[in-house]
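Note to self: keep these together.
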Amino acid sequence: MKHVIIIGAGAVGSFIARSLSRYQLDVLVLEKENDVGDVTSMANSAIAHSGYDPVPGTKKAYFNVRGNRMMPQVTEELDVPFMQCGTLTVAIEDQQLPMLKELLERSKENDVPAQILSANEVRAMEPNINPEVKGALLCPTGGIVNPFLLTCNAMENAMDNGVELKLNEEVVSIEKVDDHFKVTTKNGVYESKVVINAAGLYSDKIAAMVEDIDWSIRPRKGEYYVLDHFEWNFVNHVLFPLPSEKGKGILVTMTTSGNYLVGPSSEWVDDKDDVSTDSLTLANVKEQAKMLVPNIPFQHQIRVYSGNRATPSTHDFIIENSKKYPEFINVAGIESPGLVSSPAIGEYVAKELVGKLLPLEEKKDYNPRVRKHLRTIELSDEERKALIAKNPDYGHMICQCERVSLGEIEDVLSRSVPINSIKAIKKRTRAGFGRCQGGFCQPIITMLLAQKKGIDVTKVAYGKKDSYIVDHKVTKGEN
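Structure:
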């Protein structure tokens, strides 16, 4: 019997697991997808929000601000790319200026550093901004983070400290039996004293297995453009329009890898698994983005994608014990700013919620760090030569677009979190993220993964468990 079962291995579930791995507890994470962080935690804006925007006094405000303050240390321990570049919330029209003052007052209530900049100050910081800009709210503690590694490395650290992870384990029922829960998946039955529901878009479905709930989760889709590495300083901050009832609006931002993101849209959808994109929505994203930065070079577009936010009917994060069974904990409705909030949520759930149900005895050998990644693109010529002399695999480039070596791929394949797909390698190393979108490196990685997993090449998945890359082998004489 486990002490704790966590349902869901997105950013929130992974950070809960990491926080619990500090203690003498037997923890199991069940994830229905083929990899960690494979839904909302994968398809978002990759922003470490400062916390100026959430309504003061809400859970969103508290965990956003706390998570933002934790981010420098967390990303250093987990070896995750993070840049505290600051955010600018931009007013384009005179009638929007009073809203900047309102946001400044809100930032003060949330204890977030902020200041209003004049139009000239904004233009000096952002030469490509709309020349009609009237002013902006600068929040210097905002930034950008690699969302794939933030989630994956949090889970890796949890597993290095003793947490168990099972992928492709979709929960179908939860039953309270005496002093514990029986959690049934499509593959087996697991028992635990405490269950934590961090199932993202499906957290309402999981909660309803235990009791009648008075809240729900509705998916809200956001569609994005990804632009190639065309110019490092095209924008220098995360650029937001003024927020509306639909959210923070269409942003323009660089990423930690040097790409640029433009988006997201905001549209309600009924299907929680609908991550399609459409030309009309993307055209609207493009037009709105040009109001911030008129000369965005969309000819450098290399990909579009979408992700679904787990929007709660409560309009705030749901982080609480079940009313029926206190040993069942709901961590639901973690939409934006959920990514930056996740370390703080993990800490709170472990200490304040699980800590009131189970004794928390710290491990003497707990290690908050993951093994450092060697990224050849970040090394000097001298460092790269020395590394290649020691291990020639770091000189064998698999992905030319993103300059990812065989050594880096071999490294991630040797870590705690299992890699079951091409996309899992892509998220960890960026191999396949470049302008050819895997056109050249994907066949090599497919063969490599088949070799490492000891499976036939026809059994290598792209993303989900059965999303096979190769349909069949062509035999001699076959047309």
